[in-house]
Input
Amino acid sequence: MADPMKIRATVQGDVAEIRVLVNHAMETGQRKDAKTGELVPAHFIQSLVAKLGDKTVLDAQIGPSVSRNPVFGFKVKGAKAGEKVVITWKDNKGDTRTDEATISAG
Amino acid sequence: MDKLRRMLLKGTGASGALAAALAAGVLKPGQVFAADWNKAAFDAKDIDGALKGAGVSGAADSKDVTIKAPDIAENGAVVPIEVASNVPKTQQIMVFIEKNPTPLAASFDLQNGTEPSVSLRVKMGQTSNIKVVAKADGKFYTTAKEVKVTIGGCGG
Output
């Protein structure tokens, strides 16, 4: 099972700033193993969906050009402190993980 | 729904109709992930193919689309960038690294009040333009910025 995400969500005025750090190798499938010289198989996150309560706010499709342990930051208007942010990702091997955080006042 | 079924049965143009239905949200595969991963766009080996795969056509250069990125990235494995669009009704932002082996890095669908400003970290194999395309009201707006890379982030 993959490691948990780190989600930080703070609201200022009516705009919530959300940052999520995902623990993932994001292998491109083009890197060679230093010891064996064989290609390391591709293993990367393909989708990441963020929900505020039960509304989808961000639906991202992701490729291997995104860095290892990706960080995404985005802003949602109309969010309030105390609301729940739920983030789910899925990778090309079918692994998936969901974590949540509560928006705090900034 | 019946109409759709007829189109599917007819065969010709069915996949196009299905794609349109998916885009329109008529059919939703899975509960969480609204859209299927766009394999054609992400697997494309050059910028033209990636743009085509992502359905981008006739993108106009626009100052309203902005990229904040370092001029020189010492480490191509982690290049922090911030992309934004001031075009009204921006609904989607796409990030392309022109000279990467697979140029499309990410595509963000913005819904329910998410502002058109996203930060992320990308890999860059070599010095390249970063191209950002924003989709607003069915039209495409684009801008590009060159980032010099001293150590590549895609090789082994």
Notes: The mean pLDDT of chain A is 94.
